[in-house]
Amino acid sequence: MNWITKMFSSSLGQKLIMSLTGLFLCTFLVVHMIGNLQLFKNDAGLAFNKYAVFMTTNPLIMITSYLLYATILFHAFKGLWLAYKNQKARPVKYQAFDGKANSHWSSRNMGILGTIILVFVVVHMSNFWWEYKNGHVPYTRYMENIQTGEIVSDYMPKEFTMHTKLEEQTEGLMKVTIVKDLYREVAEEFKTEWWLVALYVISMAALAFHLFHGFASAFQTLGLNHKKYNGIINFIGIGVFAILIPIGFAAMPLYFFIK
Asked: Which one, of 101, 81, 97, lies nearest residue 89 by Cα?
């Protein structure tokens, strides 16, 4: 067991840990993006609200979520600690050559980018996750015509509460769903809080630069870079994680703010 401790406490071991936790968080981004795309459905938020219930009540998802929260905190603070150690180990900047010519801006500022993302995660969790679980999120009743698919919704009174987040029943041709309405909370926050929209957009820009360097770097650290695979790794790292996913997440608050 001693060799394991030595390996993960070494410089290479620290990079391995950051790479593995970073790639795990990348998989979460994909899943979270797919779920959040329900916000764009023209159903008054029904699909997104059902997704929110599933994510907060499914036992397997809940266990994975706690692992995810721990990984986010570990990856963030470990990254900041490594950035601090690297800066401390090199208090005087190189004079013999220009370091900027040998590395991308994002690789030299991973600590700053990570800090912006960490602040965003804290704000995001407090505004929506914490509020959904512990605050007074209202309920909405959806009436869906089974034959036509037409959906009509109305807000339940503020004092209305349920023991569960979701209740479904069929009444003739109507499927009635009463659900905790996180969609409404999201829409109202982004409609009225311009600073929150700005924070999301800035944070997604930071995430883009963070992933631009971090995704490919993780594969390099794990020894999985090869001329046969580098093309697809760079395509996924830049095209999907550094461009598509940050744009997708930034589009959500902008959609409600402009709408």
From this structure: 81
**Do residues 201 and 250 lie in contact, with contact meaning Cβ atoms separated by under 8 Å?**
yes
Q: Which of 109, 112, 110, 124 is nearest to 199 (CA)?
A: 124
CA neighbor of 245 nearest in space, from 62, 25, 56, 78? 25
Rounded to two decimals, the pTM is 0.83
Structural domain for 146, as ranges: 138-180
Strands of 166-171's sheet, edge to edge?
151-155, 139-145, 174-180, 166-171
- Mind listing the pLDDT tens digit for each residue in 167-218? 999 988 899 999 999 999 999 999 999 999 999 999 999 999 999 888 888 8
* 208 and 106 in a common domain: yes
* Phi and psi torsions of 157, nearest 5°: -55, 150
For residues 171 and 127, is the Cβ–Cβ distance under 8 A?
no
